[in-house]
Design brief:
Elements lengths: L2 H21 L9 H6 L3 H29 L4 H23 L3 H24 L1
């Protein structure tokens, strides 16, 4: 399995790690988690939002990695872009939790650029 494929797995796990921040509390109600998370505030609400965004960011990234592999793009480029994407997603989550919207938007945009670059690398073969 390539490094880029491992990054896909790590990226798939990231939203679950993020939501753990939102759910961590003594009175967490596992019977109605969505209702409780919708009523959260502060860092817990931002963690929940970052969790949701993780699921939005994952499919295009996974597709881009797979397509880049299938088209025979250089493995080192695929790996580098995948590692960079995951690093930017981790930064994005951290910036979301710290309530830094400007920097968070930059991290999101750079991550999206990695996805586009994976498609371009795949197209160029």
């Amino acid at each position: 399995m390539t490094l880029a494929y491992w990054m896909v797995l790590a990226c798939a796990m990231l939203p679950y790690l993020t939501v753990a921040v939102a759910k961590y509390r003594k009175d967490y109600d596992n019977a109605a988690p969505r209702r409780q998370l919708a009523q959260a505030d502060g860092i817990k609400l931002r963690a929940y939002w970052a969790h949701l965004n993780g699921f939005e960011a994952f499919p295009p990234f996974a597709a881009a990695v797979i397509i880049a592999h299938l088209t025979g793009a250089p493995q080192m480029r695929i790996d580098a872009l995948a590692v960079l994407f995951l690093g930017l997603r981790v930064a994005y989550v951290g910036l979301y939790l710290m309530d830094k919207p400007g920097a968070r938007s930059i991290a999101w945009t750079a991550g999206f650029a990695c996805v586009v670059a994976l498609f371009v690398v795949g197209a160029l073969g």
